[in-house]
Amino acid sequence: MTTQHVQIREVALRDGLQIEAPIPLSAKLELLAAVAATGVREVEATAFVSPTKVPSMADAAELAAHLHDYPDIEFSALVASPNGARRAVAAGLRSIEYVVAADDTFSKANVGRTSAEATNQIDEIVAIAHDGPTGVPITVEVVIATAWDSPFEGPPRRSGCSTSPRPHASAAPTGCRSPTPSAPPPRAA
């Protein structure tokens, strides 16, 4: 008999709030408590990104200071640059997610650089994570945005992860996932 396993990562604190007007940290902490009460084991808590471009994430370090109140939850944070990775590591995160878009138009709109430029920063982000102040390895997960479809360019001309960055040899464990909700992955004929 095969055991099936479903892993759920709650993302409301980051993805659900990032494009909204900033809300007080106290409201985010109430949402965090409600999420924790559901029993979920993984939570993407925040994003360490430019506070001028994403004001709702300006309090990422302050929110991260409260994550230790929930020791049974594995928290992660999204980063969009080496500076974001430094801030996340300094805030004590043990897992960071770095987004690389499969198409340049989305990448430029999202993080201000091409997919190739974003891919070229993977090694630096991995080095930042592995050289963190705690001496505890930090998980780096590379997230492929627009892997199946792009709101700007449509389906990619090349297939999924063939356009994606390669995991850095020292980044153990690493991963690849596509958060793009606009289209399902291609099906084999």
TrEMBL record:
Provide the residue span(s) of the region labelled Disordered. 151-189
Give the family this protein belongs to, as stated in its UniProt record.
Answer: Belongs to the HMG-CoA lyase family.
Write one Gene Ontology MF term.
hydroxymethylglutaryl-CoA lyase activity
Residues in Pyruvate carboxyltransferase domain copies: 6-132
Protein name (Swiss-Prot/TrEMBL): HMGL-like family protein
**Keyword line:** Lyase, Metal-binding
* Keyword Ribosomal protein listed: no
Q: Which Pfam families match?
A: HMGL-like
For whether the record's keyword set contains Lyase, the answer is yes
Q: Which GO terms describe its biological process?
A: ketone body biosynthetic process; L-leucine catabolic process
